[in-house]
Write a structure and sequence with these properties.
By secondary structure, the protein is α+β, with helices and mostly antiparallel strands. It contains 11 helices and 32 strands. The strands form 9 sheets. Strands 3, 4, 9, 10, 16, 17 and 20 form a 7-stranded antiparallel beta sheet that branches. A 5-stranded antiparallel beta sheet has the order 1-32-23-27-26. Strands 2-22-28-24-25 form a 5-stranded antiparallel beta sheet. It starts with a helix and ends with a strand. 38% of the residues are buried.
Length: 533
Amino acid sequence: MYNTSFFKKILLIATVVLLYSCDKDFNAIGDNLIGDDHFGLEPEKYDVVAYDQEISPVQSNGLVNNALGIYDDKVFGARTASFATQVSLESYAPTIGAEPQIVSVQLTIPYFSHAISTNDKGDTTYVLDSIYGKPEDKLIKLSVYESGVQMRSSYFDNGSQFPQLYYTNQNADFDKFKIENPTPDGGIKRLNNSKNVKAENDEFYFNPTELKDVTKDEKTGVETTTRFAPQMRLNLDKTFFQTKILNASASVLSASDVFQQYFKGLYFKVEKSGTSAGNLALMDFSKGKITIKYTAKTDITTDAETVREDRTLVINLTGTTASLLDDVKTPAYQTALTDQNKTDGDEFLYLKGGQGSLAVIELNAFGSKLTEIRNNKWLVNEANLVFHIDTDKMAGVYESKRVYLYDLTNNVPILDYLTDGTGSGAALGKAVYSGIINIDATSKRGTTYKIRLTDHIRNIIKSTTAVNVKLGLVVSGDINTVASNKLQLKNTVITDAPRASVLSPLGTILFGGKSTVPENKRLKLEVYYTKPN
């Protein structure tokens, strides 16, 4: 059923694009004959019904980036983001060697960062990207456990194979089944159990400092410095990995499926650290790895002593993953989600990423004028939706750089998105379709998001079979991502949510189209026409 639904969506997108391309060879009602400049003409404005819709727990496996940490924006509430992942040996069936003795175990995951300066000693200063929260409230409690949940990418039911889905609300499941491996002295039962470096556990923070490893050649005495951009670097329990990996039977290290049953993965649990509000980061965990350094005996002997050689074994953080979110909503946000007005629309539209919320948009007033538009042969030059940000409510809160408007009824992009080939990357791609935040030059805060839906409106006017579908509006963590993730509990309005929204930890509050919203902030559909005499 999952695969069939996916191919239906792809077929629908392809059909729309094909019809649009073929139709461009003909002049028809609604076509633009004078270009996309409206030449200062006043637009026809249509009322819009827009209301809030909660995104219930949503599928969170397979995301390219995942959140880790705590972010409380005081507007939407506090989010605690934990994470679970399978792990894989970099090379299976490794030759461990005789009598292995572990030296160190280090977990590293690079942060998103960029360099801003380098001094004459070669030291580079970095700034971390995708970090949310106040620098003075940066501490979180981070615990890394061996996972007790057997994760998988698919399952079989009555002979058919289906994808295995994991959802944002499953943190309690992973927490319940985490494996608390005791240390020899009966200490803290987690893998990052350093008692001397609290920055690796109880007072962890996302450190922007460049890291340097210095090695010394024993023969020449020459030191070599290797530099690393900022990264998470945790020293893990050596006794655990000595037993779990180096002393393991060769059979459990022989292949990925056997190994992932034996070592189910890691669970990163996040909690508050004292009174600190915490910070949250977006991270690419797939670039993470565990490096085990150890020594093993060789066949060489010197002065009746057996020589030991240095060896390394690497475990990658790859496989099935799950982003695990615990949200505590503010009363105002919770009320907005439970008291929607689907008839007149809501005054405010709360968009929030993750297991957050979207806005449902209905262009019924425009739809009621279709017969008049067709009969009068009006030609569409441009059509836009302009969303005004409630700057008072959003004061001091991180703002989403983009929003994404899509066909909510069919869960596919609108035609303007598909036909826009401008720009590239998450920030500049689809620049005509847009949804890019407009920033006030003085306050440096967002004011509006403008989205072009000219081709979408033309298509509705030209084709008597086109449906005036419901539209959805979400914050976007990546404008190039149009796939959707399944909701755990489907409802009559949505069954999926755009993955671009699930990726984002941010939100925004917009003015809706309700009549009580001030005219200069009210959401309306603006259409510029050429009207024949």
